[in-house]
Amino acid sequence: MVNEEAAPALMTRTWLNSLMQRYDLRPHKTLGQNYVVDPNTIRRIVRLSGIQPGDQVIEIGPGLGSLTLGCIEVGADVLALEIDDRVLPALSEVVGDKARVLHCDALTVEWSQLLGPGPYMVIANLPYNVAASVVLNMLAQAPAARSFLVMVQREVAQRFVAKPGTKAYGIPSVKTAFWGTATMVGDVPADVFVPKPNVASSLVRIDRHPTSALPDPEFVFPLVQAGFAQRRKTLRNSLSGMVSAEAFRLAEIDPGDRPEQLGIEAWVRLSEAVSSSAKPSG
Fold first, then answer.
1. What is the dihedral of CA 88, 93, 95, 97, to 10 degrees?
2. Do domains 13-212 and 217-277 have the same CATH topology?
3. CATH of domain 217-277
4. What is the Cα–Cα distance from 43 to 38, expressed in whole angstroms?
């Protein structure tokens, strides 16, 4: 084991290579195990997250602890959720007793049982294939998580922040806008990772809207899902059987529009109009 006093404060390329060699580790591509090994980049990511001393932080996918160490450095209370049991011994060496590590899958964990009242800040380096699912699941099921800073493939980042009428705008864009405000806050160069990824990476910050101000997603999201399931069709066709002509009129939405033309406010109006038009008069 590396002498704790001799170890650098933040992850470096030399330290990471030593860990992988001593623990016989190979990065798992499907788990998105591209580790940040540049201390300046780590500090920049933590700074952009807004994490402050004493903040409660949930880290998804700590890997070998690059971002974990950055959060520890600023004095945060970190709970790191790691799915890959192969890296746990090395991760334990890196963080010691300065962070709590839980071996679990962020997609299946019961957030209501795991988290207290919060507030929590979330930081994560997420692989392409689960990034949207992890973030949207936490937004829906972990209201105590008030803000997120996620590092994802740029294509995924663009979907989180996309505006109506753009090519990237879709279901993740609408659902993210329902729960909070998403902002692209920076890019991360490929050469600060080990191994070096073949894709561009970006940082997205999401700040949650006050939960008390939100309508019921059970009324909004089925319309969004149905509308984007047939993206090239007009709303009149894609929402046939779900939305009446009267509901379109009440919501002041043209049934000849396509789903990518509607912002979250329009989808909420439409769901409220559907509910209102379905109520018996008198």
1. 100
2. no
3. 1.10.8.100
4. 9
Question: 195: cis peptide before it, omega within 30°?
Answer: yes
Cis, peptide link before residue 255, omega less than 30° from 0 = no
Longest CA–CA span in the chain (Å) reads 77
Pairing of strands 35-36, 193-194: antiparallel
Q: How many CA atoms lie within 13 A of 275 on its CB side?
A: 14
Enumerate the domain spans of the chain: 13-212, 217-277
Please name which of 57, 98, 97 lies closest in space to residue 81, comparing C-alpha atoms: 57
pLDDT tens, 46-103? Answer: 999 999 999 999 999 999 999 999 999 999 999 999 999 999 999 999 999 999 999 9
Both tokens of residue 281?
């008069």
Other residues' Cβ atoms within 10 Å of the Cβ of residue 157: 24
Residue count (the chain) = 282
Q: What class has domain 13-212?
A: alpha beta
Strand partners, 166: none
CB 107 within 8 A of CB 135: no
